[in-house]
Amino acid sequence: MIQAIADGYVALKEAIFEHALLPALYAAGLMAWEEDAAEWLDFALFGALAVLVSILVCAPLERLRPVERWDGGTSTVGTDVTYTLLNRLGLLPLFAFVILQPVETAWAAGLARLGVIPPTLETVVPALRDWPVVTFLLYVVILDFAEYWRHRFQHRFDWWWALHSVHHAQRQMTFWTDDRNHLFDDIIAALWFAGVATLIGVPPGQFPLLALVMRVAESLSHANVRLAFGRIGRFVVVSPHFHRIHHALDHDAGVPARVHGTNFAVLLPVWDVIFGTARFSPGYPRTGDASGSERLATGSWWGTQVEGARRLLRTLAGRG
Ligand SMILES: [Zn+2]
Ligand SMILES: [Zn+2]
C-alpha cells in the first residue's frame, strides 16, 4: 500500500516535471535551472501532499464537532489558508532551497576539511540498524523534543515572541492556523529542524515521512474541533483540546497568551508533563492574544507579516 502510494507519487512528479515544468523552463530560456527546478518541485509537491492529507483528516472533523461557529463570516481563516499555501507550496520550499542548501553544503565541506564524521544515532547505537521502525520512532521523539524547546523559547524571549505572536493572534483557529507563522520564524524553524535532523543523522529517505507525520499532527492540533484523546490518550499525542489550551485567550483573565506557559508540546504531551508545563483543564476556551494589535489578529497575510516585523523592531529597540 505505502509502496503503491510512493510509486504513484514519483510517477506524478515525473509527469509534472516533463510535461509542465520542463517546457516552461525551456520557453523561458531557463534550462540552466533544470536541476534546481526539479528539487523545488519535490518540495512543493510534498507540501501539496501534506496539505491534502491535513484537509482529508481535519475538514470532516471540523464539520462534525466544531468548537466555534462564526456566523458573521470566517474572514480571518482565509489569511491562514494563504499562509498554508504560501508556506507549503511556495515560500518555504524556496527558503529551504535558497538558505538551507548553501548552509548544508558549507557544513559538509567544513567537516570534510577537518576530517570529521559527525556521530549519528545509528553510529552511536549500531544495533538500531536492525530496527528501522524503532529508529524511525526515536527520530520522531528526538525531533519532537527539539520542537518543544523551540516553542518554549518562542514564548521565553521577547524578540522571538514578537514573531510568534503572529501565530497566537488568530481568534478563529482552524487546522489552517498551523502554518500561520512569521516568515523569519519559519526560517528559524526550518534551520532548527534540519539542524537537529542532520545532527542525529536522519537518512534523507526518511525525512519526508517524518515531516509528513509531524505536519499532519500539527494541523490536527489546531483544528476547530471538540476532540480530546481520553484519560490515557491525552498523554500520548497532542489533541486539539490540549493545544487549544495553549492558544487560550483568557487563560487567567487579562493575562496575555504568552505567559500561560502551558502545553508547548507539538506532538508528544509527555514533554509538558516532564517539565511541568502540562495543563489538562476542561472546556474549550476562546483563542487569541490580548497583547497583539487588531491588525495582527485580522490583517491579511501581508498585514500580519508587516505587523510582526514591526513588533520585532519595537522589541529590539526596547520599546516592547
Ligand atoms: Zn505558542
Ligand atoms: Zn499553535
Oligomer category: single chain
Q: What best-fitting shape do the alpha-carbon axes yield?
A: globular
Low-confidence sequence ranges: none
Helix count from the secondary structure assignment: 13
What sequence of helices (H) and strands (E) makes up the elements?
A: HHHHHHHHHHHHH
DSSP helix fraction: 55-70%
Structural class by secondary-structure content = mainly alpha
Q: CA-to-CA gap between the ends?
A: 53 Å
| Bound ligands, each once | zinc ion
Strand percentage, roughly?
under 5%
**Number of separate strands:** 0
Q: How many domain regions? A: 1
Q: What number is the mean pLDDT?
A: 85
Describe this structure in words.
With 320 residues, the protein is mainly α. Helices cover 64% and strands 0% of the residues. The protein has helices spanning 2-27, 34-64, 77-114, 121-124, 132-156, 158-168, 183-199, 207-222, 230-233, 240-246, 270-274, 294-298, 301-316. The radius of gyration is 21 Å and the shape is globular. The model has no long low-confidence stretch (mean pLDDT 85). One zinc ion is lined by residues 151, 154-155, 164, 168, 246. One zinc ion (ZN) binds next to loops.
